[in-house]
Write a structure and sequence with these properties.
mainly alpha; two-stranded antiparallel sheet; 3 helices; 6% strand; elongated; Pilin-like; Type II secretion system protein GspG C-terminal domain-containing protein; transmembrane helix
Length: 163
């Protein structure tokens, strides 16, 4: 960021104080160089597999917390919510999926479907396609899973869950 501020200063000095076109050009180059470096770093950061795996681990943490919120909703209202938007907002368990984050698109929520007296909950994963090997499911460690409405449907790779 220093290059942009120095570049702006050089442009202002070149125009108003010294009236020198070379200072203006050097300042403009400093700003363009800074913008180019940060744009490149951002593009590399969003496409690297390591950054995608960070989104996946964040998504996994959100899913694990979201199960608790959905189960608490059932305790309060006697049934599971029809959509994740009905679950009270929790900063530790947001309903938006970090693996679906994209600058040009609005945030997507986790896949949630109420099924009978249970529900399906998952992340579509980095590839953004439901039913593939990279889908993420909540990790529930309970000796008696019959008390939890979460069900994980075994899907063949590439097979879509019903909308």
């Amino acid at each position: 960021m220093v290059g942009a501020f120095v570049g702006l200063g050089l442009i202002l000095y070149g125009i108003f104080r010294y009236k020198d076109k070379w200072l203006v050009l050097i300042g403009a180059f400093g700003i363009l160089f800074t913008v180019g470096v940060y744009t490149t770093l951002f593009a590399i950061g969003t496409t690297m597999s390591k950054s995608r795996s960070l989104f996946a681990s964040l998504s996994q943490m959100h899913l694990n917390s979201l199960v608790k919120d959905v189960e608490f909703y059932k305790l309060q209202y006697g049934q599971y919510p029809d959509s994740l938007q009905e679950v009270p907002k929790d900063q530790l368990a947001p309903i938006h999926d970090p693996t679906q984050a994209n600058i040009d698109e609005p945030m997507q929520t986790f896949y949630y479907k109420r099924v009978g007296d249970g529900y399906h909950l998952c992340s579509k994963g980095v590839d953004k396609v439901l039913g593939t090997a990279d889908d993420l499911y909540p990790n529930i460690y309970l000796p008696d899973r019959s008390k939890v409405g979460f069900t994980r449907r075994a899907e063949a790779p590439g097979q879509q869950l019903p909308q």
